[in-house]
Design brief:
Oligomer: homotetramer
Helix content of chain A: 25-40%
Distance between the termini of chain A: 40 Å
Number of helices of chain A: 10
Strand content of chain A: 5-15%
Bound molecules: fe (iii) ion
Largest sheet of chain A: 4 strands, mixed
Order of helices and strands of chain A: HHHHHEEEEHHEEEHHEHEEEE
Radius of gyration of chain A: 22 Å
Shape of chain A: globular
Structural class of chain A: alpha+beta
């Protein structure tokens, strides 16, 4: 994943007293959540990769495990033997510093190691981690806590991707498989636009608790007076469609219009019209469109076109953060919200040195920032300063939007 | 598969007396062979599709089953209910007449129906076929025997593909999985070139026993005096490589040279050099090259370049058939042998009407004929008049060559 | 150009007495014809290359000139200085033996040397050739006559391409430029099918007069009794279109149908429907379709589909040659005629050694033989044994078809 | 061109007294400059289009002329007849509102209208414009002055592209054509980094004189204390190259590294190494690299990698504008300078309604802002608030960089 963000629940810095207790509990909780998410999937389901941007569930499980092996067990446990020497090649994702990697678009061909072997790999690493956490002295614990923390946050990011990737895979199956029959997108509370007075604010992570490096440094920003509205709903989106929104080039960014034509888009991702009614492929299979729900699986190009249609703007990420700090609702747990801010470095940003520093800085071009979190984000992983980012044509994530108007 | 050929073992026309007995035995034997070939594969192994030309093992199992359901059970059994209405869409391959089909390159994404469900599908159809074969009256048996025969030959073709396709998939796995540790290519007997006197011969299928439509009509051909040599070996191929065969454009067809450069070919398919020694990925995993074995996994482009290097020719399919009828050894069971004959219609050929007639005729351009059979061909499926065909860049089949010289 | 063939008019072997006179006259005649064909073109017209398969007229003029410089002046004239050292790189086409070449698809970017400089290049080489032909002694003349002959035939091939390539370029211009207002396709004489009795015939070039190497050796072929019909007309093609010929996949080769869908073909090349009437872009600009004229600019895929629609076959090249030797009309000067013979080597064929031997042999895969000649073929270049060849999707040449039926 | 900027010389708002005099003089000056730039080019040179992003010089000449015909003559001159009805289709570039357009990548195939006809088109429109400017009453002049101004600024933008596009075309010619033998990049004055104190500043166009819509509204920005350095030179770039800059993935954005590998970049655009010495293809042909000159023809990806290598940042466009307003030298007339600001809307920006409003707003994604101007920018077209923009892989413009450091 292009990196995203994290949490209080697993935050080592949020711990009250005992670092060892925190680490053991947080490690167990996050690792279990991964297994919980994979439980409805068969071995075959865990193998598929339906596009280069997605990865097999089995790969997510192994890659997040490799992270702990590579960055904690190998350097910290004397005599630790990797479970399988070949896994570093297979399950490294993009850490150039950590050595060569298997080609990303071919992950779906790796039938061996099997799902069962990956399960054993996870158990092996979990046992070694348990020993490490039990036996490490206090100084070691202090030293490794930040790496544990980043490893757990990293695994939580992949937990979200496990859902978006399997939905993408299932959407290619004409039989419309169901991941979880009861799955629904939470309803937004909606409400009026919230006014943000102009002025100088501080944004970015302040150093309390965990964050990714791209959220720092905390710094001053100048905000122009703006009103920021609620999540756009399916009902509003249907009105856009009925007004010919997908057929009018004047509403679209030039690159967006090229995408609409090349891809044949005429509705958000996973929407399908059957006998005049709109449905959407979801983790609960094909479901009728609920007009009151937040629109989901729209790309930046679509979000931008909708804003032009509405005569408004997408918020900047600075406006979003200030507004949410001030109480804007529906920010978390429904859909990630596109901002019009290109993903880049905050003033004075420097990547962390070493392999972990590759994580965020090298993606700072061609992508747009999304803020908040989604229904697929693990509990406790969301954060006010979190900066998620995707390419403008991407829409397989749980992505929606809200709009702003500048005061006149 | 571009269609190929068949057998005596399953030939309804080869039967001595009882048509019902033949049909039940042949049906059981062929269907069991499919399951025998898939036995070493996990559910995950059965799902992968490593290129558009290949198909998942699970798909082969379901597609060959659909053939019997579509062309025998549905038309012949009153009230027969298809096992699953959606399978016609998923498991039809190229019969335009039989309705729309799932996109070929996406077969590897179909995790559901699962391997287990496909097993149940096979059992369901086998049971229905057993009833049909038990209860059909003599007239019906006579009428359906040709369709059973084609269905069994069709399944045998897919049996060969199951092996070539899984080898292709495994070859993409850096861990070099083993399908069957004892697997080896049979050794050729070799020997001198065999002289074929010039003259008029008859080739093509005569109407005794099963054949595909492209083997007919039996017709006269004029053969020029020619000597046809033994299978080319790995040792000979290594000499070609050492002489710079893969680096000299003057040895190659223009399209072949473009392929060599685009693909970076410097050896036959699945060959890999480790510390100066050559290995080949096989169904038994990585194995050292045996200089005495027949060269395998060469494309037509490579076969043609080798012929130019040797100052000889590839045989025409007519020369091959006449020579093998006269006793040329190693024709069957090792490697398919490229001929220089473009795949086309025999004089007076007309496709069978209806869906089954789509089978062969529509591939009669851009492909070259291969003759004989390979180690992966099921017993009894080979035939003197059999015409296999592949594109000139294809080399994932078990393909080799022999050379000819015209008398002077 | 995929190489094709030539003539009596420029044949050194057809000469009565004086070899020097013949050479000077033939050289002058062919070189002038090139200039005559380019006369209606502006400098800009001479530069465009509308696809990788086509070349700019200026390039054709320079490339054919380079041939004489490279293969005659440099080896035969002591102290000859190439007009410009860089031209060997720019104007070599595919002779690997003759050194590196400029990339084919970028020929349309070579604004310098200018059209005027290319004119000077031609004059320079023509003057040097005139001196060579005036001053060479008899032994030299005998030695170089075959190279002159191949050079002139080569230039004639490019003369045909100059017309097909400029038509392709003009067809991309929304203003429908006119090359020659009076241009028309000659009318066919039509007539009934001509019966060819079965038996053994000889085909291929016999050694009298010039031919390309691919026309040899003359050899025996076995012909099955067949009747070969007249050129198919636009009127017949319109009936095919009205019967839904371009929309029925069962009429098409599998690769052909993929091409129809990818390219959106619904009529022959350069056809365009305006207000319900069909027109074709020609060298005389847009012209209404004449139902009595031979259909032109059809690909092999279309020719094959038409044959299936008609329940007949395309002829083999052997059948075509035997029939034309026996008097079949309309063989030359209207449209090249697709045969169903894949382009390959005659039995015993060996390419000429050296650079000139690259000419034909390396294209012997993936292409189909066309026989006869077209309206664009220079006078005297056509020949009974001539084997032209193109890929099955090609249709920018002047290509049509006739059909055969086997006796029953 | 992705739209960029304009000037004082042609600014209607900068005029002292007489609007008519200004319009006639400005129109004549700009139109003549276009012809001056095209003078060294042959008809063939004017036709080539060496990539989809570039356009033929002839097209630039016609397209800029069409702008005046479409947006001034047709609406303002009663009874005005377009010079040729087909030109609107051929020479519209991206104004969806103004009707359908000829496909951009095929502009290089339009040999007709010829260069001579385009010259007549320009003369025809110039005559009509002269009449309009002579005869219009004051009210009309006031109304059309802004459109004249935008038309002239538009033509100036294309003047820059004429040079960058012909250089790109010439760079594909192995004979290294020379556009102007005396052409050189102006030398930078260099100097130390300039400190910009933190604080609130105003940037963007204030409404005096011409600007493009994307430069508005003028608004407050918060600047963090920063020092902004001089133009990076070829000498510094050679040090980056010698340090392995093009071979170390850790220095590159992920998308940038993919581009380096796909394109095989190992030096800036148009650089070529001959016998160990570096040269660059320029408008004066191949020239040795001058270490003291500003590096030119680097992409954003390269600029960003250099900044990482140097441990510094590219400036934001806000920092650049504030620094240049404060006196930073070398801002104009040498190379455009990449900023790290993604091209987007200023707060409160709204596109101008109508076709002219398509000009800038629809490109506000995936591109980066460049500031300043280059040696190819026409005199008087540069402006402090000018926002040029290109994709991060683009390097055929005259593009360089400077670096910043934040105060600590
Ligand atoms: Fe990761
Ligand atoms: Fe099949
Ligand atoms: Fe040639
Ligand atoms: Fe423009």
């Amino acid at each position: 994943m292009p990196a995203a963000s994290t949490s209080t629940a697993v935050s080592a810095t949020g711990r009250g007293g005992n670092l060892r207790d925190w680490a053991r509990a947080a490690y167990a909780a996050v690792r279990e959540e991964t297994e919980r998410r994979v439980a409805p999937l068969s071995d075959e389901d865990q193998l598929i990769q339906s596009m280069a941007d997605a990865s097999p569930a089995k790969w997510h499980r192994a890659h997040t495990t490799w992270f702990f092996e590579q960055f904690l067990l190998v350097p910290q446990v004397p005599g630790y033997e990797p479970f399988d020497e070949r896994f570093a090649f297979l399950f490294n994702s993009y850490y150039v510093s950590a050595g060569p990697r298997h080609e990303r678009p071919r992950r779906g061909l790796i039938t061996r190691p099997t799902v069962a072997e990956v399960g054993r790999y996870r158990a092996h690493v979990d046992a070694a981690m348990a020993r490490l956490l039990a036996e490490a002295d206090e100084a070691t614990l202090d030293a490794i806590a930040p790496v544990i923390e980043i490893g757990l946050n990293h695994e939580q990011q992949h937990q979200e991707l496990m859902l978006t990737d399997i939905l993408h895979g299932f959407a290619h199956n004409p039989t419309d498989p169901v991941y979880a029959a009861a799955w629904r997108l939470p309803a937004p509370v909606g409400g009026d636009a919230v006014k943000v007075p102009g002025g100088i604010y501080r944004i970015g992570h302040e150093g309390q608790g965990f964050s990714f490096d791209n959220e720092a440094p905390n710094h001053q920003v100048l905000i122009h007076p703006v009103a920021i509205g609620p999540l756009i709903t399916n009902g509003e989106w249907l009105a856009f469609m009925q007004a010919g929104g997908y057929r009018d080039p004047l509403l679209w960014l030039s690159d967006g219009w090229a995408t609409v034509q090349r891809e044949g888009w005429d509705a958000p991702g996973y929407w399908r019209q059957v006998d005049g009614r709109w449905f959407q492929m979801t983790l609960a299979g094909m479901q009728p469109i609920d007009p009151a729900a937040a629109v989901c699986h729209v790309s930046y190009y679509e979000a931008d076109a909708y804003a032009r249609f509405a005569g408004k703007d997408l918020p900047t990420e600075q406006e979003w953060e200030v507004a949410v700090a001030g109480g804007l609702p529906d920010a978390f747990g429904i859909v990630w919200q596109w901002t019009r801010s290109a993903y880049g470095a905050y003033p004075g940003y420097r990547p962390v040195p070493g392999a972990l520093g590759e994580y965020n800085g090298k993606f700072m071009v061609n992508q747009l920032v999304l803020r908040g979190s989604s229904v697929a984000t693990p509990d406790g992983h969301e954060r006010l300063t979190y900066r998620n980012f995707f390419y403008p044509h991407h829409r397989w994530q749980f992505t929606g939007l809200r709009l702003t108007e500048y005061a006149r």
